[in-house]
Design a protein that fits this description.
This protein is mostly helical. It folds into two domains: 71 residues, lambda repressor-like DNA-binding domains (434 Repressor (Amino-terminal Domain)); 30 residues. Helix 2 crosses helix 3. It is elongated. The two termini are 41 Å apart. Pfam families: HTH_3. Keywords: DNA-binding. GO terms for molecular function: DNA binding; DNA-binding transcription factor activity. This is HTH cro/C1-type domain-containing protein.
Length: 130
């Protein structure tokens, strides 16, 4: 499921379903997950039912408690995001033209890429009337 296609309510529902599945896989109750994550049981219940989006620190605690990646909770696939900040950016959603451009740029020197960025900034700021 692609993140761009999810409305906030759908994302909450998806997150809740993923959390419930992970909790059930571990054989835990909602109260046990809540206690381990340091949140109130009724708050965790609302998250699981798709009625609430947790704050980032809570999301991190839930991912650790449930033993799953936050990417799973956020309905992100490996095509949507890179595995780490050091990994190359994912290219799964790029158009053929952008894929060709990325392929070309990989062989360019940093100085040449900087020059291209300057040209692109000029083009970005140009009006269609020019």
């Amino acid at each position: 499921m692609e993140l761009e296609q999810l409305q906030p309510e759908q994302l909450q529902q998806s997150l809740g379903e993923a959390a419930r599945a992970a909790r059930e896989r571990l054989g835990l109750t909602q109260a046990q997950v809540a206690r381990q994550a340091g949140i109130a049981a009724n708050v965790y219940g609302r998250i699981e039912r798709g009625g609430m989006m947790p704050a980032v620190p809570t999301l991190r605690k839930l991912a650790r408690t449930l033993g799953i990646s936050a990417d799973v909770l956020l309905a992100l696939s490996s095509a949507d995001v890179a595995a780490s900040v050091d990994a190359p950016a994912p290219e799964g959603n790029l158009s053929p033209e952008l894929l060709q451009l990325v392929s070309m740029l990989r062989g360019w020197s940093p100085a040449k890429v900087k020059r291209l960025i300057r040209v692109l900034k000029v083009l970005e700021n140009a009006t269609d009337d020019e």
